[in-house]
Amino acid sequence: MNDPDLLFVTEEETTLRLDKVLTLRFPEYSRTYFQSLIEKNLVLVNGSIPKKSEKLKVGDEIEVEFAVTTEISIQPEPIPLDIIYEDAYLLAINKPAGMVVHPAVGNWTGTFVNALLYHCEKSSSDTLRPGIVHRLDKETSGVLIAAKNEMIQRKLVEAFAERQVQKEYRAICLGNPGSKRIEENVGRHPIKRKEMTTLQEGGKVALTLCETLSFNQGLSYVKLLPFTGRTHQLRVHMRHIHCPILGDPIYGNNSANKKWNIYRQMLHAFRLSLIHPATHQKIELTAPLPEDMQRLIKLI
User: Fold this and answer.
1) Which CATH number is correct for 5-64, 3.40.630.30, 3.10.290.10, 1.10.10.10, 3.40.190.10?
2) For this structure, is 137 an active site residue?
3) What are the extents of the domains in the chain?
4) Which CATH number fits domain 168-268: 3.40.190.10, 3.40.718.10, 3.30.2350.10, 2.60.40.10?
5) How many helices (H) and strands (E) does the chain have?
6) Which of 181, 188, 265, 276 could form a disulfide with 248 if both were Cys (CB 3.0 to 4.6 A apart)?
7) Nearest to residue 150, comparing CAs of 162, 132, 136, 163?
């Protein structure tokens, strides 16, 4: 997913309302816009949903997830999509590494949402309001689903939240993790606040099953099954077991990344299985591996 912006309250800001603080920090957006984000629970204070009247303290951590509202116009763009499934209700693509999923600060154009709006306008005479159901990190490739109307979006979001969608990832990692169950809480790093980490106390429960499919030259091709959907879960869990994902610039091994000349995480959302929210039939969506991963897998 797109990482939320993170900021910390200064002494001068403790006398101000939350929406006022955000307006001063991000003057390109209006106070009304931030009030809308707060109402949609897209602003957290110290990891919790704040009250409108909440008083801020020095050092409080504010997380802001910039989202599209009626105030911000997102333009359709003719960006090619590698479509692996489409019907009247939903669309699934094989997202390339490097594509941002949702518009946000610094990425209002060139995203999957811009491409999706263009595709839906072009392919239907009806007025469609496509919506994002889940997200992938910018440099993670693979299956990505979007809904074509609000009702389908709501049902799919609920299915993901209730863990009714089975997800399978493929990755290339350092070392040989074998087959294991990784159950370690994931939360914000206590010092590196823009990173996630495993935590003995606090954080959120996170569970991943890992299986090595092949191993050679110090690298493993692995299958990863996340049973929870925490931010950066797979990348953090693989680092925790000392088998970081190759190419990961944050949680990986810099010397190994340089050795292999890989600078984006070798992580791919390979398969999604779910019950179609309209037809109630089970569908299984698979995305072919990108070329950079295929080349490494041949070596392994």
Assistant:
1) 3.10.290.10
2) yes
3) 5-64, 168-268
4) 3.30.2350.10
5) 7, 15
6) 265
7) 132
For residues 171 and 113, the answer to whether their CB atoms sit within 8 Å is no
The identity of residue 168, as a single letter, is E
**Distance (Å, whole) CA 144 – CA 42:** 22
Backbone angles phi, psi at 220, to 5 degrees: -120, 140
**Residue length of the chain:** 300
Residues 6+ apart with CB under 8 A from 16: 24, 56
**Catalytic one of 19, 137, 248, 292:** 137
Tens place of pLDDT per residue across the chain (300 aa): 445 578 889 999 999 999 999 989 888 778 888 888 888 888 889 878 887 677 899 988 898 877 655 555 678 899 999 999 999 999 999 999 999 987 766 677 889 988 998 998 876 545 456 778 888 999 999 999 999 888 898 899 899 989 999 999 999 999 999 999 999 999 888 888 778 999 998 888 999 999 999 999 999 999 999 999 888 999 999 999 999 999 999 999 999 999 999 999 999 999 999 999 999 999 999 999 999 999 999 999
- Name the nearest CA neighbour of 80 among 29, 119, 34: 119
Q: DSSP assignment, residue 247?
A: T
The DSSP-derived string for 53-68 is: TPPP-TT-EEEE----
pTM score? 0.83
Contact predicate 146/130, CB 8 Å: yes
**What are the beta bridge partners of residue 196?**
188
State the Cα–Cα distance between residues 45 and 63, nearest whole angstrom. 6
